[in-house]
Amino acid sequence: AQRVTQPEKLLSVFKGAPVELKCNYSYSGSPELFWYVQYSRQRLQLLLRHISRESIKGFTADLNKGETSFHLKKPFAQEEDSAMYYCALRKYNAGNMLTFGGGTRLMVKP
Amino acid sequence: DTGVSQDPRHKITKRGQNVTFRCDPISEHNRLYWYRQTLGQGPEFLTYFQNEAQLEKSRLLSDRFSAERPKGSFSTLEIQRTEQGDSAMYLCASSLLGQSHSGNTIYFGEGSWLTVV
Fold this sequence. Notes:
The structure holds two protein chains of two kinds.
Chain A: E1 3-5, E2 10-14, E3 19-21, E4 24-26, E5 31-38, E6 45-49, E7 60-61, E8 72-74, E9 83-91, E10 98-100, E11 104-109
Parallel strand pairs in A: 2-11
Antiparallel strand pairs in A: 1-4, 3-8, 5-6, 5-9, 7-8, 9-10, 9-11
Chain B: E1 5-7, E2 10-13, E3 19-24, E4 31-37, E5 44-50, E6 53-57, E7 65-68, E8 75-79, E9 88-95, E10 107-108, E11 112-116
Parallel strand pairs in B: 2-11
Antiparallel strand pairs in B: 1-3, 3-8, 4-5, 4-9, 5-6, 7-8, 9-10, 9-11
């Protein structure tokens, strides 16, 4: 069975500092990896997916199959980045269930 | 707001009572999902529909839980004989099955909070 681990429950950084939210997964097949974000009082929304290889709001994430990781990075954190971040995995072309990690709360201090 | 909508947003019920949640997906989305989220945890998959057919069910979905999507549009999630362990946020989500893999984005509702006392 697949599993997603986010080792940090809370990550606190100062504005302008680099950010890395860690995500590790276990799955024997070819996964799809996602990052979802939930801002205060808002619904969970997709931030980015590994297939798209895109940068959203300055965030990027690279799938490292050797290390089974999909860490989320941003070179300069902004206060508006403060939110809950969830890493999620979906089995590629084999179902629609998303398996989520436990989430990391990012706090960006002024 | 044309996003996924859920009702009620909050429900407090006594142990042993039945509760029902409703989800209206984004118009024309043919896939609908239910997730459960407890405090400090990420969402956990419960079940999903493609049109009116329920195609996957998690082992988390005990016999007291039943979900329907009778006309392939809105869905209901009923919990019978509620227990305190059922207290959680119940999230609904929807997506559109398309040819483009990148188009199959899952959109979430704001959730329905259940508190069983």
